Amino acid sequence: MASEEILRLDAVGALKWLRARIRPRPGRTLVGIDGILGAGKYDFADELAGLLRESGLAVVRVSMKDFINLKALREAKGEDTGEGYYENHFNIDSFVEDVVEPLRNDGSG
Length: 109
Fold this sequence. Notes:
single chain, mainly alpha, 44% helix
């Protein structure tokens, strides 16, 4: 089995590495960033969006923070349970309708 070289980058280097792989092509490219609480997802997404804009790409930066369900719904099945947190925390239907569908290649943009 061939060994793979491990590439270690600082935060700026990692962002530039990722930007080089998100290149213009026909249609739209959707990029999702996921991670555990406190990992820095929102800051990372902001910095990546800035680098992509500097590269001349059109960027729409959307945050899942804008799609959090009301507290009563989040707590309906117990917010501290997997079902309550992962299934009820975000309004996925609204996210798909308001963001994903319009940004599909045949969407309104």
